[in-house]
Amino acid sequence: MTFAKRKAVNPDNIEPEGSNRHNISVGQIMSSSEPTLAQLAEQEKHARVQRAQLEKKKATMTHKSLEESEDEQPPQVQHDELTATALKLKAFEREKANLNAQLATKQRAAT
Asked: Region labeled Disordered — which residues (predicted)?
């Protein structure tokens, strides 16, 4: 024969016989678990702030990646580009000097 286990009874927590522990209505349960209008508004505001922060972070990352891609050229390529630019600058300066000399010659001939 097996004996059923009895629950230990706490003398401070004795309920009268026939009391209904489950006297909460379904409406009370549903209303307490549903967020209020203010809570929904706060959640939406929080979501908008998070989306804005995410967009800002994406924009910053895109900007940084563009800067990094410009700086990622090998040093030799950068050196070659600088040399080519310096040569072009010298050629333009020579052309300017020639044009100034031609202008001075024409001005002397006109006087």
From this structure: 1-22, 55-80
Q: What are the average pLDDT values for consecutive 10-residue runs of the chain, which has 111 residues?
A: 60 55 58 75 89 88 72 80 95 96 94 81
pTM of the full structure: 0.34
- Longest Cα–Cα distance in the chain: 139
Phi and psi, residue 10, nearest 5°: -85, 120
Q: How far, in Å, are 78, 106, 108 from residue 111 at the CA level?
A: 50, 9, 5
Core vs surface per residue 59-90: b (16+ CB within 10 A) or e = eeeeeeeeeeeeeeeeeeeeeeeeeeeeeeee
C-alpha to C-alpha distance for 72 and 85, rounded to whole angstroms: 19
Whole-number Å distance between alpha carbons of 44 and 38: 10
Residue with structure tokens 């040093």?
A: 75
Domain boundaries, the chain: 34-72, 74-111
